[in-house]
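From the thread on structure requests for the teaching lab: each student submitted one protein with a one-line request. Submission from student K.M.:

"Model Uridine kinase from Agromyces archimandritae, tokens only."
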Amino acid sequence: MPDDAAISDPVTGMRAAVVARLWGELQRVRPEGRALIALDGFDGVGKTHLARELAEHADAVGGRALVSVGIDGFHRPRAERLRAGAGPEGFYRGSYRYRAFFEHVVDPLRFGEAVVPAIWDVARDEPVPKRPRDVPPTGIVVVDGIFLHRPELVDIWDDSVWVSAPFSVTVPRGNARFPRRGDDDPESPANRRYVEGQRMYLREADPESHAGWLFDNTDLDRPSLRHGLAEAAAQA
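Reply posted by the TA:
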């Protein structure tokens, strides 16, 4: 499910500067070839919107080509997700088709072939036409989504960004897309599947420790960017 989450105001001057700085940092990743970069974070934190901002900035200023992919385009069909379970475990373990993501994005990128950014429309619960996108020899593929540092994915990224905000912020943002869900309290039973599923992910994968950059998106007008432990270690 995309996490645009009520983020529709024009980009402020400070936010634009931080987005520009992040794009400058990302362009240094694997400059000799194609790069695969994750934008990871909680549901509702603003990853999809940040990916769009990066793409718009890249178009405006030039440099390496950017191709955007959302892991939400590789959801399992609703019936499969229900079979995986309605609780946190089902959300974490059974939401996505990672084999299809490798087949359509990861492997083609490594072999210099076109990538397919999406195969499924989660809202309509139906396939979407496969529309291959060429990636130039030094292009950057930015993948936004949840759970992107889980064990079967953590080693595929050339680098990654952990987009953060507390659940007290991300749950209301996420719920803004689904008014019938209603309760903005992260500890509400209505939010248990999503919040506890993401806590399970934190315990298992510790994504912040793997990310090259930490993008604090708590205040949309005043985000902050700093190097993560992984990037600091690479530069040491």
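TA comment: The radius of gyration is 17 Å. Residues 1-11 have pLDDT under 50 and may be disordered.
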